[in-house]
C-alpha cells in the first residue's frame, strides 16, 4: 500500500508499507484488464502482471526495461524521462490498441516510469496476457519495439562527460 508520495527537490519519493512477497494486497483487484500508466514511483512487475492475468490466459509475457550502466560506448550515470505535455499516456494507449488489433490477446499493460532513474532501476514494464505464448510474445515484441521507436517521453541520458537529450 502506498503510504506517501512526494517530491524531495531532486526526485520522486514513494513510501510503501512493507509487505511479504506472497501476501495478497488488500483492496487490489487481480486481472482487471488493460493498464496504461505513467508514474514517478518505482514499478512493480508483479503488480503489473497481476493486473493483466486472467483465467482465460495461458501465459503472461513480460518485458522489464532497466537502466543500463553503459550506452553508446559511454558509462551512464543516470537517465531522466519527462512527460512535459502529458501526452505519453495517450501514445502508450495507441500502441496497446494496435497490439490488440494485430493479435488475439486478452489484456496488455504498459507502465513507464518518469523522473531521474539510476543504473539498474526499472523504467518500463510491459505485460501481455494471452491464451497462447506465440501471440503473447509477438504482441510484447511489437509493443517494446513501438515504445522504443516512438519514445513517448523526453529522455535525457547523463554520462560521465556529456548529457544527451532525445525527444
Fold and architecture overview:
The protein is α+β, with helices and mostly antiparallel strands. Helix 2 runs antiparallel to helix 3 (133-150). It has a single domain (31-166), classed as Molybdopterin biosynthesis MoaE subunit (Aldehyde Oxidoreductase, domain 3, Alpha-Beta Complex). A hairpin with a 4-residue loop joins strand 1 (2-7) and strand 2. The protein has helices at 45-52, 88-102, 133-150; strands at residues 2-7, 12-16, 35-39, 59-66, 70-71, 74-82, 105-113, 115-118, 122-130, 154-159, 163-166. The longest helix has 18 residues, at 133-150. The strands form 3 sheets. Strands 5, 6, 8, 10 and 11 form a 5-stranded antiparallel β-sheet that branches. Strands 3-7-9-4 form a 4-stranded mixed β-sheet, with helices on both faces. Strands 1-2 form a two-stranded antiparallel sheet. The termini are far apart. It has 3 helices and 11 strands; from the N terminus they run E-E-E-H-E-E-E-H-E-E-E-H-E-E. Helix content is 25%, strand content 40%.
Amino acid at each position: 500500500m502506498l503510504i506517501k508520495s512526494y517530491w524531495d527537490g531532486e526526485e520522486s519519493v514513494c513510501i510503501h508499507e512493507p509487505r511479504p512477497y506472497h501476501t495478497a494486497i488488500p483492496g487490489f483487484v487481480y486481472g482487471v484488464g488493460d493498464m496504461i500508466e505513467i508514474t514517478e514511483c518505482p514499478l512493480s512487475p508483479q503488480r503489473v502482471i497481476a493486473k493483466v492475468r486472467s483465467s482465460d490466459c495461458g501465459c503472461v509475457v513480460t518485458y522489464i526495461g532497466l537502466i543500463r550502466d553503459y550506452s553508446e560506448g559511454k558509462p551512464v550515470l543516470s537517465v531522466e524521462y519527462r512527460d512535459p505535455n502529458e501526452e505519453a499516456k495517450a501514445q502508450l494507449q495507441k500502441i496497446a490498441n494496435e497490439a490488440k488489433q494485430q493479435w488475439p490477446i486478452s489484456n496488455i499493460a504498459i507502465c513507464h516510469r518518469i523522473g531521474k532513474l539510476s543504473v539498474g532501476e526499472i523504467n518500463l514494464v510491459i505485460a501481455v496476457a494471452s491464451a497462447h505464448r506465440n501471440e503473447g510474445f509477438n504482441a510484447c515484441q511489437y509493443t517494446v519495439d513501438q515504445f522504443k521507436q516512438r519514445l513517448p517521453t523526453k529522455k535525457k541520458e547523463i554520462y560521465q562527460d556529456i548529457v544527451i537529450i532525445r525527444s
